[in-house]
């Protein structure tokens, strides 16, 4: 399908192809196929290298071990940072969900996480498809490309591992979708769970603020600060949605306060990973000048994130652009590590990327880009199963 394909008001048959049921089936099948590819690739990798870990242990490395530890044993007591790495840096919702499923079924934790992430990612792709159709003039081709890249493209293996990526993608996309629809209560419900999943979920409030400002400027000819406050603060649904979003983070901070005596333990624990807040642009420059290929690659990815964020701004997608800049600059202000993962795991960057592709409206460009990304994913899987820190 041509990427620039749009619905026509009279073309009911074309539109019916993208019913909720069909989008749901497409999303679920796409995720299942992606998992099958990862599984088959690992079996080939194990046969060639003699790897005996098994599929799920080989897939669930690095931070997955931290999340499993929280699932099985909860959080460490006492705010003692002298021992190095501590699990307070990791937010609880994913581990809580898996722990609940384990209590009910008794099934293996790795397996439950794998199955739940299939469900989370399929639901996320469903919402992404809907969001692209509603915000990009019915561009079904763009929605398909976004879903394929997020399920099978470069770095998409993270959505299959015992990480929060799939859950975060679902909750962030849900928040974004209902923000677009101005359904602030449902946005707040998704936002509540979002800020229990990852600290950057609070960026949703920035998107909300920018969207409300844009709405005020569009709806009111004569503008004033007092007028804006009346516009915003007389909408109880908007205010309640914002409060819901904040409450997820507040609950986790309250828990950390009772557990460790430090409500900001999730921030202070970052020091063990070499994280100290600084100038994000200086961090990017230092990545290029470090003389280390890994850091230079991460810095290049950060620059690419800035380009995508700027493109969203240029296209006047102000709420998406504001969140994209924040979602990039916040982690970069600490370190460059994991920046490629953050770019793939935050849907606003994929929206910017597919907007850019759609602007060319050339199938001969779109297909090779998707194919190259899928091929690069095999390289990522090889490095991941080798536990290469290049991907970490």
Describe the model:
The chain has 392 residues and is mainly α. The chain folds into three domains: 19-75 and 84-171, no CATH class; 182-264, no CATH class; 273-360, no CATH class. It has helices spanning 12-16, 20-49, 55-59, 63-73, 93-105, 109-135, 140-152, 165-180, 184-194, 204-219, 225-233, 236-260, 265-268, 280-289, 293-314, 318-332, 339-345, 347-360, 363-385. Helix 7 (140-152) runs parallel beside helix 19 (363-385). The longest helix is centred in the N-terminal third of the chain and has 30 residues, at 20-49. It is globular and about 70 Å long.
Task: Provide a brief overview of the structure.
One of its GO terms (biological process) is GPI anchor biosynthetic process. This protein has 392 residues and is mostly helical.
List how many beta strands DSSP finds: 0
Largest sheet: none
Question: Strand content of the residues, in percent?
Answer: under 5%
Structural class: mainly alpha
Count of helix runs: 19
Q: For the record, give the distance between the C-alpha atoms at the N and C termini, rounded to a whole number.
A: 35 Å
How is this fold's topology laid out?
Layout: H1 12-16, H2 20-49, H3 55-59, H4 63-73, H5 93-105, H6 109-135, H7 140-152, H8 165-180, H9 184-194, H10 204-219, H11 225-233, H12 236-260, H13 265-268, H14 280-289, H15 293-314, H16 318-332, H17 339-345, H18 347-360, H19 363-385
Helix pairs in contact: 2-6, 2-7, 2-19, 4-5, 5-6, 6-7, 6-8, 7-18, 7-19, 8-9, 8-10, 9-12, 10-16, 14-15, 14-16, 15-16, 15-18
């Amino acid at each position: 399908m041509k990427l620039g394909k749009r619905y026509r008001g009279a073309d009911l048959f074309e539109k019916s192809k993208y019913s909720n049921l069909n989008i749901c089936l497409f999303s679920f099948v796409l995720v299942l196929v992606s998992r099958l590819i990862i599984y088959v690739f690992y079996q080939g990798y194990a046969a060639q290298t003699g790897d005996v870990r098994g599929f799920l242990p080989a897939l669930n490395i690095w931070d997955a071990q931290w999340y499993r530890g929280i699932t099985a044993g909860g959080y460490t007591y006492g705010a003692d940072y002298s021992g190095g790495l501590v699990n307070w840096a990791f937010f609880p919702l994913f581990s809580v969900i898996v722990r609940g499923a384990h209590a009910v079924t008794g099934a293996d934790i790795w397996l439950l996480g794998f199955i739940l992430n299939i469900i989370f990612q399929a639901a996320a792709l469903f919402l992404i498809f809907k969001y692209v159709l509603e915000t990009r003039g019915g561009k079904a081709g763009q929605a398909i490309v976004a879903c394929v890249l997020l399920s099978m493209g470069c770095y998409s293996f993270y959505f299959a591992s015992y990480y929060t990526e799939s859950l975060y993608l679902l909750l962030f996309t849900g928040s974004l979708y209902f923000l677009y629809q101005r359904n602030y209560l449902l946005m707040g419900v998704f936002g509540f769970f979002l800020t229990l999943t990852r600290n950057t979920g609070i960026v949703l409030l920035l998107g909300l603020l920018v969207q409300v400002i844009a709405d005020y400027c569009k709806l009111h000819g004569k503008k004033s600060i007092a007028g804006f406050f009346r516009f915003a603060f007389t909408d109880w649904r908007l205010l309640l949605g914002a409060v819901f979003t904040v409450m997820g983070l507040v609950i986790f901070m309250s828990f950390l306060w009772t557990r460790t005596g430090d409500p900001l333990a999730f921030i202070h624990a970052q020091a063990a990973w070499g994280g100290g807040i600084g100038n994000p642009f200086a961090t990017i420059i230092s990545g290029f000048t470090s003389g280390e290929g890994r850091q230079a690659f991460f810095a290049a990815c950060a620059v690419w994130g800035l380009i995508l964020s700027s493109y969203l701004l240029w296209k006047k997608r102000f709420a998406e652009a504001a969140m994209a800049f924040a979602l990039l600059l916040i982690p970069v202000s600490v370190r460059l590590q994991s920046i490629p993962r953050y770019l793939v795991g935050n849907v606003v960057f994929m929206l910017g990327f597919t907007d850019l592709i759609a602007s060319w409206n050339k199938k001969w460009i779109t297909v090779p880009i998707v194919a190259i990304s899928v091929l690069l994913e095999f390289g990522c899987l090889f490095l991941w199963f080798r536990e290469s820190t290049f991907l970490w």
